[in-house]
């Protein structure tokens, strides 16, 4: 769902209107106008009934907004940033930066919205008598809004994602088992069951002449199934990022030359990449078996030039890039060698081959860091890792193979296939405490002492 148009900010939270909201506003106005026309005896002209129906529809969505504000304000109190609140076809949704770090906090956030709706519904129904004395139309409007707020609260408490009741189930299972992931799995399963029930009941109502009610239930069911599918895929991606090791996704995008190579010989070689400086020390993990994915034939080639690593008498010495050829006059190319212009390998952003893939995702979450150097158990370079390699490994893990054309586009853009938001997923896993960073020691630092080449 797109962001829509921002109307205003409430307590610093952007309020957005999605284009589909106007569809449901129009449909709700039609339903309210028909209800008032059939049930009320009033001297209001036809235009007046339409105005009352529109006002009822708008106030209903004000109630939805208050419901989402309940979630949002409690989330803020739990230290969770709320990106926006968006009103759309099926109601409203609050977009948060991450989940609450505790099960109790998540439970409080989940219950806040329904409690707001319950309070609104109770207050409105208590005011029906006074409103009816003022005006029959006003009394009918207050009754409608009171009943609908109670329905909104009770409907959202149904125990299945993406409803608030599903979030309650997730938080309770999380609290009982200590596993946030288990809570998500149980709540997602409940959501799928409820979605199938809604589709089935909606179909029966539609066949029996239920009309809009049946169609609306079926729409909610299809929406719930889509949300459950997306949640299941998210869980699969998270599991893949935890289970896949860097060695399983790495390839070899570097070449090796001897330190005695002249700059003239270097100029005749293929284009090479200027390696970026490492802005942070990546985490390392325990040693493991040699890389296997690095040796497989690549379906498509990276658009980035290979790095060029330098050895002297079987020992790693550093890295060289083409910038030196632009800095020195051509007359010196025949007399000077690459050894005089090396940069240490420790300047390359690197990661241990035994590290989980989510750590590589975080390291690559930088526009000026297109590639990582993969370090083997002996502290020696054994491969490289780029965003397309990461994305392809995750997609293969969850059973999705992409055509080579899509992979080629990803490599040309040095991005994730299909625009996978792996960085956001990894950051949310880290923020939720599902994973923890290892010791912040750079594998490449081991290369500074001139380790022997394997």
Task: Describe the protein in words.
This protein is of the alpha/beta class. The chain has three domains: 5-157, no CATH class; 176-242; 246-449, CBS-domain, CATH 3.10.580. The chain is built from 15 helices and ten strands. It has helices at residues 20-39, 46-77, 103-126, 128-134, 136-156, 164-177, 180-207, 212-243, 246-249, 263-267, 323-327, 357-363, 387-397, 404-413, 422-431; strands at 5-10, 13-17, 82-88, 91-96, 254-258, 307-312, 315-320, 350-352, 371-375, 381-386. Strand 5, helix 10 (263-267) and strand 6 form a beta-alpha-beta unit. Helix 3 packs antiparallel against helix 6, helix 7 runs antiparallel to helix 8 and helix 8 (212-243) packs across helix 15 (422-431). The model is unreliable at 277-300 and 448-452 (pLDDT under 50).
Give the gist of this structure.
By secondary structure, the chain is an alpha/beta fold.
CATH superfamily of the largest domain: CBS-domain
Our measurement of the CA-to-CA distance between the termini, rounded to an integer number of angstroms, reads 51 Å
Oligomer: single chain
Number of E-state strands: 10
In sequence order, what are the helices and strands, one letter per element?
EEHHEEHHHHHHHEHEEHEHEEHHH
Give the uncertain stretches in residue-range form: 277-300, 448-452
Mean pLDDT: 83
Can you tell me the number of structural domains? Answer: 3
Which architecture of the largest domain per CATH? Answer: Roll
Q: What is the structural class?
A: alpha/beta
Amount of helix: 40-55%
CATH class of the largest domain: Alpha Beta
Largest sheet: 4 strands, mixed
**Residues in β-strands, percent:** 5-15%
Strand arrangement in the largest pleated sheet: 1-2-3-4
Q: What is the name of the CATH topology of the largest domain?
A: CBS-domain
Radius of gyration: 30 Å
SS field, number of helical segments:
15
Overall spatial form? elongated
């Amino acid at each position: 769902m797109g962001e829509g148009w921002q109307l205003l900010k409430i307590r610093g939270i952007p309020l957005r209107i999605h284009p589909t909201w106007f569809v449901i506003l129009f449909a709700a106005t039609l339903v309210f106008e028909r209800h008032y026309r059939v049930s009320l005896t009033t001297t209001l002209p036809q235009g007046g009934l339409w105005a009352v129906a529109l006002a009822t529809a708008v106030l209903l969505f004000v109630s939805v907004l208050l419901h989402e504000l309940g979630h949002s304000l409690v989330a803020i109190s739990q230290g969770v940033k709320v990106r926006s609140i968006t009103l759309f076809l099926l109601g409203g949704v609050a977009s948060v930066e991450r989940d609450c770090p505790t099960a109790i906090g998540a439970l409080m956030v989940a219950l806040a919205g329904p409690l707001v709706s319950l309070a609104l519904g109770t207050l409105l129904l208590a005011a029906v008598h006074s409103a009816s004395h003022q005006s029959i139309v006003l009394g009918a409007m207050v009754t409608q809004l009171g009943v609908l707020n109670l329905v909104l609260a009770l409907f959202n408490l149904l125990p299945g994602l993406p409803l608030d009741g599903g979030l309650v189930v997730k938080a309770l299972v999380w609290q009982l088992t200590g596993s946030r992931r288990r809570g998500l799995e149980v709540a997602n399963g409940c959501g799928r069951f409820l979605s199938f029930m809604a589709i089935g009941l909606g179909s029966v109502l539609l066949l029996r002449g239920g009309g809009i009610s049946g169609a609306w239930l079926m729409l909610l069911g299809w929406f719930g199934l889509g949300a459950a599918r997306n949640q299941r895929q998210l869980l699969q991606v998270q599991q893949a990022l935890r289970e896949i090791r860097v060695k399983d996704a790495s390839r070899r995008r570097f070449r090796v030359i001897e330190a005695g190579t002249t700059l003239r010989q270097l100029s005749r070689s293929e284009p090479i990449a200027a390696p970026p400086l490492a802005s942070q020390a990546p985490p390392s993990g325990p040693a493991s078996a040699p890389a296997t994915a690095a040796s497989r034939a690549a379906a498509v080639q990276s658009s980035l030039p290979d790095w060029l690593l330098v050895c002297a008498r079987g020992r790693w010495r550093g890295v060289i890039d083409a910038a030196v050829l632009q800095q020195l006059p051509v007359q010196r190319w025949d007399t000077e060698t690459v050894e005089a212009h090396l940069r240490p390998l420790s300047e390359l952003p690197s990661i241990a081959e035994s590290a989980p893939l989510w750590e590589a995702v975080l390291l690559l979450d930088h526009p000026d860091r297109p590639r990582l150097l993969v370090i083997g158990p002996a502290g020696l370079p054994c491969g490289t890792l780029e965003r397309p390699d990461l994305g392809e490994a995750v997609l293969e893990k969850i059973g999705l193979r992409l055509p080579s054309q899509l992979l080629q586009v990803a490599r040309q853009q040095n991005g994730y296939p299909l625009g996978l938001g792996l960085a956001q997923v990894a950051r949310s896993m880290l923020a939720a405490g599902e994973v923890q960073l290892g010791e912040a020691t750079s594998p490449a630092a081991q290369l500074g002492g001139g380790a022997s080449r394997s």
